[in-house]
């Protein structure tokens, strides 16, 4: 009976440690989720702004193209290029690519 009591005690202690470890991981993931949601909101606003700018540049290009009959749009492209440069290289959108992005992001977050 004593042997069983100690086994149960060890099992409960092990469960407590695992529960506290999982709670710590959950807190980190919750914080990471919050940061990613904020980043997502920021990027969505940036996309909206860039779509608006793109429409503006297209209308300006068509207006200046009609007025000057210039077939080269190099000047327009270079003038707006600083807005369109991506901050990160394009990534693979496959599940494996997304998993690698998630793992890199988690590793980066946990290193902070």
TrEMBL record:
Name of the gene this protein is made from: 09HZ3
Alphabetical list of SUPFAM superfamilies matching this protein: Homeodomain-like
PROSITE patterns linked: HOMEOBOX_2 (PS50071)
Coiled coil: 12-46
Protein name: Uncharacterized protein 09HZ3
Keyword presence, Mitochondrion: no
Gene3D superfamilies attached to this UniProt entry: Homeodomain-like
InterPro entries (UniProt xref): HD, HD-Zip_III, Homeodomain-like_sf
Gene Ontology MF, one: DNA-binding transcription factor activity
GO CC, any one term: nucleus
Main localization, broad class: nucleus
Organism ancestry: Eukaryota, Viridiplantae, Streptophyta, Embryophyta, Tracheophyta
């Amino acid at each position: 009976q004593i042997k069983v009591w100690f086994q149960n005690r060890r099992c409960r202690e092990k469960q407590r440690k695992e529960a506290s470890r999982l709670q710590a991981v959950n807190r980190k993931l919750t914080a990471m989720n919050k940061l990613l949601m904020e980043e997502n909101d920021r990027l969505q606003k940036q996309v909206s702004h860039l779509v608006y700018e793109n429409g503006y540049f297209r209308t300006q290009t068509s207006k200046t193209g009609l007025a000057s009959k210039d077939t080269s749009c190099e000047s327009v492209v270079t003038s707006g290029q600083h807005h369109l440069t991506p901050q990160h290289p394009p990534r693979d959108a496959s599940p494996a690519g997304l998993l690698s992005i998630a793992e890199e992001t988690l590793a980066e977050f946990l290193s902070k």
